[in-house]
Here is the input.
Amino acid sequence: MMQYQAGTFLARFILVPLLTALAQAHAEPVVTQQPAADVAAGPPDVVARVGDQPITMSLLNTMLNSSAVVGLSVPMLGTPERDVVRVQLLDKAISANLQYLDALKQGVDKDPGYQQDLQRFEDAILASLYRKRYVIGDIEVSDEEIKAFFDSNIAPGTEFTDDVKTAIAAKLRKQRVQGQDATLQVRLREGMEVKIEADHLQPNADEGRPDSEVVATVDGETILWGEVKDVLITPINAGSMENRTRALNRMIDQRILAQKGRVAGLEQDPVYRARVAEYRKTRLINLHRGNLVQDMQPDEQELEAFFEENRERITVKETRNVQMVVLETEQEAREVKQKIESGEITIYQAAVEYSIDPNAKETLGEIGWVARGSGFPELDALTFALGPGELGGPVQSPAGWHLVRVLDVREAQYQSLDEPGARKLTRRMLVHRNLDDYVIKLREKDFKVEVYPDKLKALFAAEREWMAAKLEKAAHTSEDEEKLKHEIEKLMGGAGQ
Here is the structure.
């Protein structure tokens, strides 16, 4: 079973028995277990709950399929490894939800910066939806145009299905709207009064400009410097009035599109609601975590104490890339060494022709990287006394008499807090531990956490049962195999989750 180490409460109190139970389940025949009746209100695949926040299997699968962000591999459906990774992700989800509820409790969601970020995100989603559905969607594309594109651009033998027609129509609309971008701003602002205060945008006055400075108005609604400055002072815009004005115009157009989206009722659109809810929660967690980390920065005394307590975890020992020839007797070892030093044979030939190491013919005597203190004392002493390229020995170990050559050296690192790398790593580890301890206290004192192991095991078992049935069916025909491959790709990609 895969090992897992983490500092959060789930890892300490729940993960070990749960992972053990999952390992046992995979060793037994596939039998779908029924979850306990209504262990929690909400979606049918709820596997845990933090306060009023449900955590579903769908969420864990979505997190798993976003492994490029999470930093975990994506094991195959129905495997023990996939189950273990999802339990690890459950740990992360519980920790994140505890921080989310704590942020709400502390009123972090009232932070002006957070509110501004949320407003911008909402405007961006509304603008995108409105543009897609009303600006692009209103462009007419005829059946004749779709068929002409299909005949000219799609590979022969492709079926002319409704899905293909829809995809071609969308592509043609997109191409057409790109050609109209030059006139889009005029059409978008028709009937509206838009004014940019150029005097309030001059780069040379940025330093003393107050956030309350009005830089533009849209039908009487003001846009303040504080709302747009982080975009207008970026390197590409900072020194150029032309670039700055262009960027401000793009922001104005997005605001107008968002306003039109609100009038069109797009705030009730499921896509908008889901994406905004996800952003609201994720952004608040990140903001709160950043604030906590800032408050948890250790002083020098705490840093030194943690380094001493965790020296073995922080320091990196000196390592050497080693090549060896192992002989039965000291005399034989000396004779082979003399042949190598005289140039009669190379150490590679010596490894192949003389070494009693059973793997020497394949490895040519190359052992790889070894750390100081990891081998037999006499052999270790010799290895770490040699310089790169030097041949040493013979020296005896229980395995025989060794000739040793050091191919390369990696110096020890993080031996002292005086090293910038050691200080940075120590600080990061200490803050991470403090944050873990903070989350544990939230669970113990502030918010109720429930995990439903039986529901987890039942859902895992159902997936294994489904996979076993599909594999058995796919063994009969290539068509079934191709359909199975497509279904698995959809599931691995998080479709429908």
Summary: The beta strands are 46-50, 53-56, 194-196, 214-218, 221-224, 319-327, 366-371, 391-397, 400-410, 449-451. The chain has 21 helices and ten strands.
